[in-house]
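Board notes (copied after class):
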Amino acid sequence: MKQLQLELNKRLLIVEYETVHEMEVEYSLYKGLPEADKEVLCKGSEITEDIISPYVENFLENMDSLAVYRKYDATEKDFEEDHWSHCADDAVDSFVSAVRAYGYHWGENPVKKPVKDNYGYHENINVLDTPPEWDEECYYEDLDKWQKAESRTFNPEKCIICEILKP
């Protein structure tokens, strides 16, 4: 199980379960037996503009009909190159950028899983005779990078998003 607490307009907690079934059971329990310290907002796969907009920063919050949301992972360098780089497309994009700003990923792992065949591996490799085309070291380095990124990637299908109510 992965968890991430986001400090936005209000505190949010993202919890990813091992399976979709486990998430569905927990979601039903949260909905049926609310806890005093947190309130379930939605499943990760059901996040919408209406649900998440109160939790992310709107630069134009005093204007009823306009919304320009903060892009939490934008840097000063981004701003120098494009003054609109601090603005997210919408509230959901703003939420996803907040997840990235905390060093996590939402949805797809940005690091592609390495495939042994692309490193010169084949089934007929003799254990005693490592051929020069099999770049085992590079493969395992890339596999390690993928595993680290995977451990920091939230699958929305297995997630519940909650508001933390108590300080």
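Comment from the instructor: The longest helix spans residues 136-150. The chain has a mean pLDDT of 86.
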